[in-house]
Structure formats: structure tokens, C-alpha cells
Design goal:
Elements lengths: L11 H7 L5 H11 L5 E5 L5 H7 L4 E6 L2 H8 L7 E4 L11 E7 L10 H7 L1 E11 L3 E2 L2 H11 L24 H6 L3 E9 L2 E5 H8 L3 H4 L3 H14 L3 E5 L2 E8 L4
Parallel strand pairs: 1-2, 1-4, 2-3, 4-5
Antiparallel strand pairs: 5-10, 6-9, 7-10, 8-9
Length: 255
């Protein structure tokens, strides 16, 4: 697991404060796709529990896993008491209990691609559902976007994570759907988008940037300089597009 993947624990409280939760529409989409009761779920890279709450508060017995103890400590402040937590990287999880649902919220790209899909399949009941979803924040106003890019450029060309398998951004099926379609473990791969727009103050936007791995791995003095430069070009209120891209797939039935 990369250093960027393990960079969040020091900002667990900021992550909880500045990252938005997930809408009930996402839960309904996953349940409708499942087409059958979903009593249990395993979450990969639960962080502070933004997605954990979505499923646990609606009656699903969630086991939330994350390699970072600080993130799980923050999670426990906000999720139902009956949520089970396991401090472990995805690669260290051992098959045992099988779940009706395995899901990852903006975390799957941190997992090791070697054996990823057989590992996930081994955690699922036959016919069980895998769901991956994430919502990159993008500035809605092109002029503000360009100003922020120019302010950041001397230190950081991009703060986004490129497609792990090189799928172009204009391709019809985005990652991880592109990998799921090639996997022998899964079938009925679907992609959907839940539109979402977020308005925040300039200060909160900087707070949001402080939870993004590309900035977290910068030296502290450089990071503060970048944030100062970005703050200078922001309007008082920032409009963001934060559409949630959802990928769903079903574990093949065993022969």
C-alpha cells in the first residue's frame, strides 16, 4: 500500500468535517441492483465512516475495515454502536465469513491490483454484490478552476488520481468497471452517476483540499504555501461539481 494511501490518519478530524456524506439515493441504487435482502456488508477502506453510516443506519450489519487506526477511531464517534471494525488493509483480510455486499467508497484505488477481484469475490456470497463509488470534487466555474490550477502548478501539476488501469476519461465505461468487465469473478457490470452539487466557503474548500492525498504527502511548509496561493484566487463562495460515479457488479454463482 502506497504512502499516499496511508496519509490520511493525521487529518482524520478534517476528513470527517470537510468530506461530504453519501445520499440515500446511493443506498437505494445498491439495494435495487441486489434484488434480494442484503443483511451483511464488508466495507473496504472505511475511513471515518461516511459510507458506513449510509448502510448501517438502514439495517445492514456492516463490518468496516481500514488500515489506519486514527481513521477508525474517528469512525467510531459517528457510526451505530453495532458496526464491527477491523484494522486491516484489504490485502490482509482473510476469507472467512461471506457477505451479501462488499463495497468501497473512494478507496478501491488504494488496493493492490494483483489478485484484487478474486480477493473480493472470496469475501462475497455467490450472487453477492460488489459496489464501488466515488465523487471527485471539481470546481464548477472554469475561470476559478484555471486560477486554482495556475496557483498550484509550481508545486503540484494535478491533485487528482489518474485511472488505475489507464482508461481514458472519455471512455464509456470508467474504472473500476473496466476491470470488472474483464474479471472472470463478476458479471452484470453496471455504471451509473448520481449528480451532486456542493457549495462551500473558500475556507472550507481549503479544508477539503487538506484531506486530499496529493497535498498530504507534500512537506508541511510547501503544503501551507500552496494553500495560501490557492486561497488568494478563490471567491468567497466556491461552487463544486461532486457527481458520484457508481459501479456495481455481481459475483458469479458457483458451479
Amino acid at each position: 500500500m502506497s504512502g499516499r494511501a496511508l496519509s490520511f490518519g493525521g487529518v482524520a478530524e478534517a476528513y470527517e468535517r470537510f468530506r461530504p456524506g453519501y445520499p440515500v439515493e446511493l443506498f437505494e441504487m445498491v439495494i435495487a441492483y441486489a434484488g434480494r435482502p442484503v443483511p451483511t456488508a464488508l466495507e473496504i477502506g472505511a475511513g471515518t465512516g461516511k459510507a458506513t453510516r449510509l448502510f448501517a443506519q438502514r439495517g445492514i450489519a456492516v463490518t468496516a475495515t481500514d488500515p489506519d487506526g486514527s481513521m477508525l477511531a474517528e469512525l467510531r464517534k459517528h457510526v451505530p454502536v453495532d458496526v464491527a471494525t477491523v484494522r486491516a488493509a484489504f490485502e490482509d483480510l482473510r476469507p472467512g465469513e461471506r457477505y451479501a455486499l462488499v463495497y468501497a467508497a473512494a478507496a478501491l484505488h488504494w488496493t493492490d491490483p494483483e489478485g484484487r477481484w478474486p480477493r473480493i469475490a472470496a469475501l462475497l456470497e455467490p450472487g453477492g454484490v460488489f459496489a464501488s463509488f466515488g465523487a471527485p470534487f471539481r470546481l464548477t466555474d472554469p475561470a476559478v478552476q484555471e486560477a486554482v490550477h495556475a496557483a498550484r502548478a509550481p508545486f503540484l501539476e494535478s491533485d487528482e488520481i489518474p485511472s488505475p488501469d489507464g482508461t481514458p476519461p472519455d471512455h464509456e465505461m470508467q474504472w473500476p468497471g473496466s476491470e470488472l468487465q474483464r474479471s472472470e469473478s463478476f458479471t452484470d457490470v453496471r455504471q451509473a452517476v448520481i449528480e451532486r452539487h456542493v457549495t462551500m466557503s473558500a475556507r472550507d474548500y481549503i479544508g477539503h483540499l487538506s484531506t486530499i492525498s496529493a497535498y498530504l504527502v507534500l512537506p508541511a511548509s510547501v503544503r501551507e504555501q500552496v494553500f495560501s496561493r490557492i486561497r488568494q484566487v478563490l471567491p468567497d463562495t466556491v461552487e463544486m461539481t461532486a457527481d458520484i460515479t457508481v459501479h456495481l457488479a455481481r459475483r458469479r454463482q458457483e458451479d
